[in-house]
Amino acid sequence: MIVDCAQYRDGVRRDAGPLDIETAAERAKAGDGFVWLGLSDPTDDELRRAAEAFGLHELAIEDSHHKHQRPKLEDYDGSYFVVLKTAHYDDEREEVDFGEINLFLGSGYVIAIRHGDASDLRPARRRLEARPDLIAAGPAAAAWAILDKVVDDYEPVAAGIDNDIAEVEGEVFATRDVDATQRIYFLRREVIEFHRAVQPLVGPLEALEQGIVADLDEQIRRYFRDVADHARRIDEQLHDQRDLLTGALDANLALIGLRQNEVVRAISAWAAIIALPTFIASVYGMNFDDMPELHSEIGYPLALLAMAVVVAVMYRFFKRIRWL
């Protein structure tokens, strides 16, 4: 469906309501300002109409049909196709929900196609409309507004993961009766998936800020540089999070092994303590005739005393070496 479509000229929006695809394409070809077309989960017919009206490259349209691609920027003879991954963190499930945005950038037009739970781009459009000086930069300004919105949405995700990492570290080092292995593993998986959405975007952003893939105005390049800095910071933060989770997992496994060793030592100590009085009792339980203690009046209490002394000595010994 068409979310919004308008022409921007002389620093302002020229249309109150959304244009249809064919009218937008005609205005884009007129070379007066630029058109921003926003689509959300478009049908095959809508994609076909957009491709025919704007002359989009068939390979870019084919990629747009196939969702779940990695972020990238491709040049098609002066027009560009950009794939972006959006992210939202569900703190209750401790999972990152991803969406996808496909951008078609060309002379006089920007087409943004949202797939799945992608970020709402209306705030990006309103932000750009409040900056007439940036609108004058053309389609690159709309591309900046979209990229800035997507990258800004990464920061709450990274912050949410940071909070959960702090919680799981507390579980590992402060709680002895909880095994945090599964939680650590799934958090690390989410960080890896999030990193796959962020890291491939850093290269294209650096190319845009340096003007390698497109001849951009110096003013708008500064704004792309700011977006690239944010993306690099998130990428570095994700590297740190992966290292923290790897260290937490190693520490958790080491503590589990230590707790298991403590249990084994305690069981061994009690087995040794029980073994000695059991040995004494088994000797006197053989009922041989030539066992003088069996006929002594103090034989029974003497045997019990010997068992008690042995148990006490062994218990104190294992306490001293901290096996109990």
Structure, described:
- The structure is a single chain.
- The protein is an alpha+beta fold.
- Among the domains are: 1-131, Beta Polymerase, domain 2 (2-Layer Sandwich), CATH 3.30.460; 256-320, Magnesium transport protein CorA, transmembrane region (Methane Monooxygenase Hydroxylase, Chain G, domain 1, Up-down Bundle), CATH 1.20.58.
- Helix content is 60%, strand content 17%.
- The protein contains ten helices and seven strands.
- Strands 2-1-3-7-6-5-4 form a seven-stranded mixed sheet, with helices on both faces.
- A hairpin with a 2-residue loop joins strand 6 and strand 7 (109-116).
- Helix 6 (139-152) packs parallel to helix 9.
- The two termini are 70 Å apart.
Oligomeric grouping of the chains: single chain
- Name the shape in a single word: rod-shaped
Q: What's the CATH C level of the domain at 1-131?
A: Alpha Beta
What's the gyration radius in Å? 35 Å
What portion of the residues fall into strands of 2 or more residues? 15-25%
The main sheet comes to:
7 strands, mixed
Q: Could you say what the CATH topology of the domain at 1-131 is called?
A: Beta Polymerase, domain 2
- How many helical stretches? 10
Number of extended strands: 7
CATH architecture descriptor text of the domain at 1-131: 2-Layer Sandwich
Give the SSE order as H and E letters. Answer: EEHEHHEEEEHHHHHHH
Low-confidence stretches: none
Strand order across the largest sheet: 2-1-3-7-6-5-4
Overall pLDDT metric: 88
Helix percentage: 55-70%
- In the CATH hierarchy, what is the superfamily of the domain at 1-131? CorA soluble domain-like
Structural class by helix and strand composition: alpha+beta
End-to-end C-alpha gap: 70 Å
